[in-house]
């Protein structure tokens, strides 16, 4: 048995309080959804796409269900405002060629630290694309993940490889959804058996296997323009076909729609432009009536209307003032946070700027108001004011989201009451026609691909 490696100097075990803060920030900014079973025990290598800079590790740690150590570029450990937190998170530095002044020979230390962690049964996560980006597709993977897994296997410490797909509905929008998809454990025992004979070939083969699995967990669509279209088509199609709103099924649909759009853009861009134009025209028709996709199918019995009115009316008495107070009290820091996002150098950094900047601005705002209250009415009042404002920021945001959803439902109900039945029927016919066109395009692409394969 190969002796267990020893930890290089400078490595630090993860601190739970660091990830506690990160998880709070993630839950405050995003609505996090998780798909996939629990992660296996023992040595584990997570491999993920990387669309959202330092937010990605926080999302994975929040959803993983076990403590994870991350690989991070070495420049984050020194000349960076958050270097102390990054070091205390248990991250392991990677020395990249693209970073100026970096000694890449020190990657020996990185591989040694990873080997120690895996031999100890820990979970390691890395982003094998090698850099964060918001291009909406998986870039060619580096071979480091495969090399780590195969070396650990050869040393007598078989590692579970689990791919993780991170799917953001809107990278930088507050309270938008992020879905973390934890895939099935990747089987590579057949490759590991030949590792000693031909390392380079086996490493490339495992890297290709990881890349293929990762692609199946992602919606590959350019985030500024294509992803919104994918979401609109999905909502239209799901409503027309009565499809499930289950998170997993929604993700599968959107992945297929994105792949179909990419293939159609390559083969028949004019047809794609025509379909997108029809979808946008249909969406504009709904918007004229202040309706959402699923509103067209509402058939609400009078009894349900009465129950809804009584229930939500009573809740509005409690939640409405809280939602209004939150909007008023935190209007200034909220707007300042939005402005900070504009300073970000790129889309993949915008959420990070807003999460950190927003946290600091809101904290300073609460501290200033609590200090003012304490100065005017005493220390106890200042402390109580600070605690009350923290509670208002959390509970008020939830109340605001709920009451906004109720208001949209009420508005849709009255809009449908005013809409002539023939107009509603016409919109539903257009929706069915668009869904039929999408099915035809999908069948054509599959048939053409099958024919090319032969």
Short summary of the structure?
By secondary structure, the protein is α/β, with parallel strands linked by helices. The chain has helices at 16-29, 55-64, 83-88, 107-119, 144-154, 189-192, 199-215, 226-241, 247-267, 269-288, 302-329, 331-341, 347-377, 379-418, 421-453; strands at 31-35, 44-48, 68-73, 92-94, 123-126, 160-168, 177-182.
Blueprint of the fold:
Blueprint lengths: L15 H14 L1 E5 L8 E5 L6 H10 L3 E6 L9 H6 L3 E3 L12 H13 L3 E4 L17 H11 L5 E9 L8 E6 L6 H4 L6 H17 L10 H16 L5 H21 L1 H20 L13 H28 L1 H11 L5 H31 L1 H40 L2 H33 L1
Parallel strand pairs: 1-7, 2-5, 2-6, 3-4, 3-5
Antiparallel strand pairs: 6-7
Q: How is this structure best described in words?
A:
By secondary structure, the chain is of the alpha/beta class. Helix content is 61%, strand content 8%. It has helices spanning 16-29, 55-64, 83-88, 107-119, 144-154, 189-192, 199-215, 226-241, 247-267, 269-288, 302-329, 331-341, 347-377, 379-418, 421-453; strands spanning 31-35, 44-48, 68-73, 92-94, 123-126, 160-168, 177-182. Strands 1-7-6-2-5-3-4 form a 7-stranded mixed β-sheet, sandwiched between helices. Helix 3 (83-88) links the parallel strand 3 and strand 4 (92-94). The two termini are 49 Å apart. Residues 6-10 have low confidence and may be disordered.
């Amino acid at each position: 048995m190969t002796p267990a490696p020893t930890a290089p100097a400078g490595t630090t075990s993860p601190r739970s309080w660091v990830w506690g803060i990160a998880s709070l920030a993630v839950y405050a900014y995003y609505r996090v959804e998780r798909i996939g079973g629990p992660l296996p025990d023992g040595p584990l290598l997570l491999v993920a796409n990387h669309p959202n800079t330092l937010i990605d590790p926080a999302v994975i740690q929040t959803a993983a269900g076990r403590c994870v150590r991350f690989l991070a570029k070495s420049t984050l450990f020194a000349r960076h405002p958050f270097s102390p937190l990054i070091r205390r998170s248990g991250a392991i530095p990677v020395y990249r060629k693209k970073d100026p002044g970096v000694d890449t020979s020190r990657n020996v230390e990185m591989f040694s630290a990873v080997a120690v962690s895996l031999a100890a049964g820990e979970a390691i996560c890395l982003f094998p694309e090698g850099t964060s980006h918001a291009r909406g597709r998986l870039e060619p993977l580096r071979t480091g993940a495969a090399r780590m897994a195969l070396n650990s296997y050869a040393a007598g410490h078989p590692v579970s490889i689990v791919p993780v797909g991170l799917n953001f509905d809107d990278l930088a929008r507050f309270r938008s959804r992020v879905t973390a998809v934890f895939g099935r454990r990747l089987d590579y025992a057949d490759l590991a058996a030949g590792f000693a004979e031909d390392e380079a070939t086996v490493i490339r083969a495992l890297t290709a296997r990881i890349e293929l699995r990762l692609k199946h967990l992602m919606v590959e669509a350019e985030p500024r323009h294509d992803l919104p279209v994918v979401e609109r088509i999905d909502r239209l199609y799901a409503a027309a076909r009565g499809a499930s709103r289950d998170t997993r099924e929604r993700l599968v649909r959107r992945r297929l729609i994105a792949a179909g759009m990419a293939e159609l853009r390559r083969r028949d861009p004019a047809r794609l432009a025509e379909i997108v134009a029809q979808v946008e025209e249909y969406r504009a028709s709904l918007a004229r009536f202040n309706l959402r996709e699923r509103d067209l199918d509402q058939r609400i019995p009078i009894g349900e209307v009465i129950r809804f009115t009584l229930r939500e009316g009573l809740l509005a008495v409690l939640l409405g003032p809280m939602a209004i107070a939150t909007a008023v009290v935190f209007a200034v820091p909220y707007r300042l946070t939005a402005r900070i996002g504009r300073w970000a150098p790129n889309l993949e950094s915008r959420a990070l700027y807003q999460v950190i900047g927003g946290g600091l601005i809101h904290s300073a705002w609460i501290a200033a108001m609590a200090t003012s209250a304490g100065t005017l009415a005493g220390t106890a009042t200042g402390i109580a004011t600070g605690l009350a404002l923290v509670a208002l920021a959390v509970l008020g945001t939830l109340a605001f989201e709920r009451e906004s959803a109720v208001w949209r439902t009420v508005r849709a109900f009255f809009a449908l009451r005013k809409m002539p039945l023939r107009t509603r029927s016409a919109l539903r016919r257009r929706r069915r026609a668009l869904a039929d066109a999408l099915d035809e395009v999908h069948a054509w692409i599959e048939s053409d691909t099958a024919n090319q394969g032969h």
